[in-house]
Write a structure and sequence with these properties.
alpha/beta; 9-stranded mixed sheet; elongated; binds ligand AOF; binds zinc ion
Length: 375
């Protein structure tokens, strides 16, 4: 068995491979796998590419066999960020495939939170494999936190994305907001989008920016586009209501509202859903439950203005915050947040497991609301 330090290096590679997956794998997890020979040299790599397809471990083993033949797996090490599955789902259990392969060492990042598929580690341990587990466990968990959340929660895992200046402004006082952050940060937003099942914006953002909400700067599966338009007042000419991705558009209006774009959007394959409102705004918790139940959305990226961002925080509907900070000042501009329910310092909304990463000229803060290990 290789050292823990080496195992961590290969696990980091598994996470890179897993990150190639976009929402095409949803609601399944993002998984990458590396296979090493008995001398610790890499024989092959695989990743889970599409819902219903081969699991990462099987993909990697198949590639090794095709390239080098069956015999090279004798005495090999398999590294994977998620516990190999132990169930008959759309594919047979990976544990079975591994057991017949000649592999002897298994290195795993995290246990499978899916109660139906877990048990692989115990199974492999009792079958006599050398097992090393919990390698880069927190990183593995954070990569698949939407998948873990999906197992127990009634709504999608929600990521809030904000782009602001050093002094917390997302626009000037006359509403100018394009662009606060630089090119590199804007590109990385497209990567965040391609990792999500759906992107949601409020009517203010839809009206002001007329965004396409595509992943055009990176290749990948187009996520669903959800437009919050409680009063149904947005113009039918907005791109999300008439471009080639309209089948991926869901407009959300309050109960009893039929917006002008309704027929046009439905004819083009899009959706209009009515959600009960509270204090003249669409009830966000109800909407979120519906997005899971009806549209099977596991990870939701919200690109919000101040009203929506603040409402989400008040309703405790933010699980991860991505905050881009540009090295600029605006002064008297529009602030990212309004009332978020904090009066006393002890009530501040705090983030866990956070990181700060330079992205071009800007800085990206990523923080989580839920602890690791999960409670
Ligand atoms: C994946 N890809 O690489 C791994 C998974 O219905 P199935 O047969 O595709 O099984 C899905 C479950 O298998 C999934 O929820 C997870 O618990 C487990 N592992 N799934 O899609 C993979 N390793
Ligand atoms: Zn599997």
């Amino acid at each position: 068995m290789i050292s823990r330090t080496l195992a961590e290096q290969w696990m980091a590679r598994c996470l890179e491979l897993a990150s190639k997956a976009d929402s095409a794998v949803s609601p399944n997890p993002r998984v990458g796998c590396v296979i090493l020979n008995s001398g610790g040299v890499v024989l092959g790599e695989g990743w889970h590419q599409k819902f219903g397809d081969r699991h990462a471990e099987v993909h990697a083993m198949d590639l090794v066999r095709e390239t080098h033949g069956d015999h090279v797996l004798q005495g090999a090490t398999l590294v994977v960020n998620l516990e190999p599955c132990n169930h008959h789902g759309k594919t047979p259990p990976c544990t079975e495939y591994i057991s017949k392969s000649g592999i002897v060492n298994i290195i795993v990042g995290m246990q499978d939170p899916n109660p139906i598929a877990t048990g692989g580690l115990d199974q492999l341990t009792s079958a006599g494999f050398n097992v090393m587990s919990g390698v880069l466990e927190e990183k593995c968990y954070r990569l698949n936190e939407p998948f873990a959340f999906w197992q127990t929660q009634a709504r999608p895992f929600i990521t809030l994305k904000i782009a602001q200046t050093l002094d917390g402004c997302i626009a000037t006082s006359n509403g100018e907001s394009q662009w606060i952050t630089g090119d590199v940060a804007r590109l990385s937003v497209h990567t965040l989008r391609r990792e999500s099942d759906a992107i949601l914006i409020g009517s203010g953002t839809a009206q002001a920016d007329d965004p396409e909400l595509t992943v055009r700067h990176v290749s990948g599966t187009q996520p669903m586009r959800i437009i919050l338009d409680g009063h149904g007042k947005l113009p039918p000419s907005l791109r999300v209501f008439c471009d080639s991705w309209t089948p991926k558009t869901i407009a959300v209006v309050a109960e009893g509202i039929s917006p002008m774009y309704q027929d046009q959007l439905i004819d083009r394959g899009g959706n209009v859903i009515q959600v009960p409102s509270k204090y003249s705004h669409v009830d966000l918790p109800t909407l979120m439950n519906l997005l899971k139940d009806q549209f099977h959305i596991q990870s939701l990226l919200i690109e919000a203005g101040p009203q929506l961002a603040s409402a989400l925080l008040r309703d405790d509907l933010v699980d991860r915050l991505h905050l881009f900070i540009a090295p600029k000042l605006i002064g008297n501009g529009l602030h990212a947040f309004q009332n978020i329910g904090v009066t006393y310092l002890k009530e501040c909304i705090k983030f866990k497991g956070h990181s700060w990463r330079p992205v071009g000229d800007d800085l990206l803060f990523t923080g989580y609301r839920h602890p690791f290990p999960p409670e």
